[in-house]
UniProtKB/TrEMBL annotation, chain A:
This is Transport permease protein. It holds the Pfam family ABC2_membrane. Its main location: membrane. Residues 34-258 form the ABC transmembrane type-2 domain. It is found in: Cell membrane; Membrane. It is a multi-pass membrane protein. Keywords: Antibiotic resistance, Cell membrane, Membrane, Transmembrane, Transmembrane helix, Transport. PANTHER family: DOXORUBICIN RESISTANCE ABC TRANSPORTER PERMEASE PROTEIN DRRC-RELATED. It comes from Nonomuraea turkmeniaca.
Automatic annotation (TrEMBL), chain B:
This is ABC transporter ATP-binding protein. InterPro entries: AAA+_ATPase, ABC_transporter-like_ATP-bd, ABC_transporter-like_CS, ABC_transporter_ATP-binding, P-loop_NTPase. It is found in: Cell membrane. GO terms for cellular component: plasma membrane.
Amino acid sequence: MTTLTLPPLSLAARRTRVLGVVRRDFAALRRSPIRMFEILFWPTVELVLWGFVTLFLQAQKVPFVVSFLLGAVLLWQVLQKASNEISIAFLEDIWSRNLLNVQVSPLSSVEYLVGLVLFSLGKVAFAVAVMAALALGLYGFGVTSLGVGMVPFMGVLLVLGWSLGLVGIAAVLRFGENAQVIAWSLVFVVQPLAGIFYPVSVLPAPLQAVSWFLPASHVFEGMRTVMAGGALPWDRLAWAAALNVGYLAGTLGLFAWALRYARKHGKLSRFGD
Amino acid sequence: MAILQATHLLKRFGSVTAVRDLSLTIAEGEVVGLLGPNGAGKSTTLHMMLGLITPDAGSIKLFGMELAQHRTEALSQVNFAASYVDLPGVLRVREVLDAFARLYAVRHPRRRVDEMIELFELGPLAKRQLMALSSGQRTRVQLAKALLNAPRLLVLDEPTANLDPDAGDRIRGLLSRLARENGSAMLITSHNMREVERMCDRIHFMSDGVVVAAGSAAELAGRYGAEDLEEVFLKVARG
């Protein structure tokens, strides 16, 4: 062991490696104005689109629509971005043919994922802050109307988004680069089932049964309850958090299995060929 | 103590046996070459040594530790460069080296990055994005990255494939000098026979996943009645 490097299993070394992932991804973002633009473009388009729908429904005297729809758009972005950003960060290592360099470094899988999660957290926070400011400026909607529930709502959606992102990464490790489409689109499977823009009661009974096993459904139902003047439904949030713990543990297991599979079948060596 | 000790490695991909009963030991400071035609199993072997591919049978010990159980400790003392691997093109040279210095938990990353920039004469390129560099310049950055942690084992897969003869010659000289000074061991694959002759203490010839001959360049040439390593290569490759 040389004195040039920290003891590899020390806390300081682990922290240095995790921050190395974050710094690298931040530097890549800083050097790529197109990526910065992309972080804000789609959320802004969606916000503007739903904002106009909201204004129209408001003119039709439909109650609560302003807060319901704009709140839903903001929270949906937390889920979508948390899922996509973690997948994109991994895919960028494949696109730049850098995955092998990362995989032969002493960076452990856990440290790599923690780095990706921390960086995605920063991007989500940035995008949501900009959208919240736009929602306030354009439509007079303040996220504070979600009350104290905003923190657990966003927390549940972030963790669910990371779980979905991990499924996307596991799919790419298992099936190769062609499975990128899963990484992009998996989160959209959640969209119709989670009652984002309408109550879950609108869904047919079999789909409602599925919906209650999605943590996001409880967040969006809870959001509507709070905005209609009701109390924060802690029981729903507790159920959503419990589901999240189960899903996160399951997807971490799936990721570990997919990585073992990729190493066994030589798939890591072939990425970027 | 052996830096690397691989014993009876076996790797199959479906019905294809990529590596069969391969054993290899590398001592401190030793430079070992893996030669063979395309598809001989060289890269699969290197990737098993780096933990990218899990062998179906056999064991790999790095610095006396089982790689499968001590991945982080073992890989912190190894580094790698290959002609078919790239670094994030959007980053500047200094940013790439800084990021990898941290991934290898280098104590003083900035100081070390400065040393590598000076060693590989990357000063004028330090603020340029990798995507704007020539392939030769990118290779120098790859090699600078590969030496950031002063590895005890440096694994190089066709390291100078993208370099012109002059740049290749200078890099070979630099790598040999660093190996001597630091006592680093190297495991190299290359299709450049002169490179292998010049750099390697010992050479393992692979064909169809099996080591068919091993020894120094002179020993192999004598054994096959050949004038040089290229002739040995042709004789081995053509059976």
